[in-house]
Amino acid sequence: MSSNTAPVTAGRRSYRKARLALAATATAAGLLLSGCTTVNAPAGGTNAGSSGGGTDYLPDEAVRKIVNGREVKVGFAPPILSEFYTQVEKAAHNRMKEYEDRFGVKWTWERQGALNDAHSGTETLGIVQGYIARQFDAVFVCSAANASTMQTLYKQGSDQGIDFYQFNSTEELANPSQAEDPTGGLATVSNIGYDDRWQSGYLAGKYIAEQLKGQGSIIQIMGPSGSDWTKLRQQGFKKAIAEYPGMTIVGEADGGYVRDKGLTAAQDLLTKFPDVKAIYGENEDMALGASQAIDARGLKHWDGQSGIITIGADGLVSGMDSIKAGKLTATVDVNSAEMGTEMIDALFAHEFLNQEVNQFIRIPTGVVDKSNVDWHQGVLQNVLNGPGKY
To answer: Considering the domain 28-196+335-364+372-379 in this protein, what is its CATH number?
Structure first.
């Protein structure tokens, strides 16, 4: 690990080493967010630590000298421009403002997301190629494109001195053993997100089963069948439900990760299976669509004793509002607030302090329902009301 007082030139570093942990001091905000309930992956998954990029321990003047008023040009490439990625981006902007005020970092930030087909990843490929052509310093990418294709693209950019950071991605499916490759076969500086091999789907399935005391039928509103996110969340959900012999998944449909398609899919399934006890929407938008379908059919939402449970995953402001209104039972909050913060922590540590950061930075997750929605919603409100704007 390089000293945090080592000089850093304005040029980009193209080396890729095994990712080591930084100092593990967290900011007060980090401590608050890390209090989220976290369940480790049931199938032997590992939870890497945070980037360690909290700034409380850093000597301001010494770091200001290292930064020396340098400007960093950052690209942000989510798969689609949506509520979730707006929350991630706003959290990142708040952290950027902190680094600007305290250490004198200057930022240029550009956001581009797919406008048409977010699920193929084709548009994201073009966006990333554009960032490379225009010689951005660092790029944050979340893409549904083929993993090996993205790694090849990252390698091309890295050879030109551009650093890539994946976030909210599914690198687990393609990652070889670090025993043979010290970088784990990844051409990225770091991969920031929750452990999605099992966690989001598994937590949702466990919550439904526990609320229903292990008895009842379920319908699912899933993302596109070819999506890696769908594969991973589905295996976790089915694993949880399989632990309860009295639980049955009776039907599923593609909701396209968007609310209107989730509504249509849920309406069709409720017509076929009117007596279901729960609806699992693989993401929160589809779960909110399912909630609308329950209202449209004049059915009852879950009140803790009876009705239809609806649960999604993401942790959206609109989802928190719906939980408080009794229109959405629960969601798995994958913590957009800490994700955006950790992304900037990792970038700052690597780009400015010449430190190696964790290859996988795991974000805490937890189920949110009426019992704890106030503080989760409060975190998001603090993020969205924060000072960062780029």
So the answer is: 3.40.50.2300
Q: Which two tokens stand for residue 151?
A: 């790694």
Instruction: Provide the residue count of the chain.
Output: 390
Residues of the chain with pLDDT > 70, as a percent, come to 84
Digit-coded pLDDT (tens) for 279-295: 999 999 999 999 999 99
Q: So where are the chain's domains?
A: 28-196+335-364+372-379, 199-333
> Do 150 and 141 form a contact (C-beta atoms < 8 A)?
yes
| Residue 195 predicted with pLDDT over 50 | yes
Kindly indicate the confidence band of residue 116, based on its pLDDT and cuts at 50, 70 and 90: confident
For strands 278-281 and 330-333, give the pairing.
unpaired
pLDDT computed for residue 174 by the predictor: 62
Of 117, 113, 97, 167, the closest CA to residue 138 belongs to 167
Query: Tokens 């030109």 — which residue?
Result: 160
Q: In this structure, what are the phi and psi dihedrals at residue 330, rounded to the nearest 5 degrees? A: -165, 165
User: Helical H runs in the chain?
Assistant: 28-33, 60-67, 83-103, 122-133, 147-159, 199-211, 228-242, 259-272, 284-296, 317-324, 336-351, 373-384
**In contact, 341 and 6? CB cutoff 8 Å:** no
Task: Read off the DSSP letter of residue 306.
Answer: S
Strand partners of residue 252: 220
Over the stretch 311-369, which tens digit does the pLDDT of each residue have? 999 999 999 999 999 999 999 999 999 999 999 999 999 999 999 998 889 999 999 99
How many degrees, rounded to 5, is the angle at CA 40 between CA 35 and CA 43? Answer: 170
What's the Cα-to-Cα distance from 46 to each of 36, 184, 188, 335, rounded to whole Å? 17, 14, 19, 18
User: Taking every pair of C-alpha atoms in the chain, what is the biggest distance, in angstroms?
Assistant: 66
Same fold for the pair 28-196+335-364+372-379 and 199-333: yes
What is the Cα–Cα distance from 227 to 146, expressed in whole angstroms? 10
Please state which CATH number belongs to domain 199-333.
3.40.50.2300
First to last CA, the chain: 31
